[in-house]
Amino acid sequence: MDVTQTGSTTAFGASAAPTDAVKRVGDATEISSDFETFLKMLTAQMENQDPLNPMESTDYATQLATFSGVEQQVLTNDLIKSLQTQLGVMSMTDLAGWVGMEARAAVPVQFGLEPITVTPDPADGATSTYMVVRNANDVEVDRVKIPPTEAPVRWAGMDPYGNLFPPGEYAFHLQSFANGELLSETPMAVYSEVVEAKVVDGETMLVFASGDEIAASDVSSLRAPRE
């Protein structure tokens, strides 16, 4: 998904970079200082060792290798922390990109006297399908026979007498039949505005204008909001 960075996100990312750079320089300076101190201690140890029982050269090599290993581990830890910070900024940028977009998902949607495009998903073997429309009180207000295909259909929001239904929240369900027997009833997907995006247990969750919350992976399409 193409994401446009908001001003606040860009500022956050830009302000974080110098701080990280200063920290890395400070860490490197500290490690360099510690290494110089280690060499001084090693030299003093060699100068003050018992000449009748000197340390083996392998012991010095072991000490040097141990210090080098610790040094590399510190640098690796700093690198990991830096990557985690960058990934955090990227994650927030991705989340910001969802908000305000219109995502197609099986959620209720607001009817504002404009036709609503609905996407059916008939059950396998269905020979006839009906679009069932329910209001916010879960009361069926309309039932329309549609072809048993995945082709999008438009709901004009009119009753059989040509009167518009009142503005409000409506949910769409598809009833699939085969030889007069009901096979399934499933929610139908519509485009609805995303008002919030968040990460829950490592998964991106989207909150729609209806208040419904679904996983981003359940969104089948995404588009810019219409004027």
UniProtKB/TrEMBL annotation:
The keyword Transferase does not apply. One of its GO terms (biological process) is bacterial-type flagellum organization. It comes from the Bacteria. Coiled coil: none annotated. Residues 112-176 form the FlgD/Vpr Ig-like domain. Keywords: Bacterial flagellum biogenesis, Cell projection, Cilium, Flagellum. Required for flagellar hook formation. May act as a scaffolding protein. Belongs to the FlgD family. This is Basal-body rod modification protein FlgD. It comes from Maritimibacter harenae.
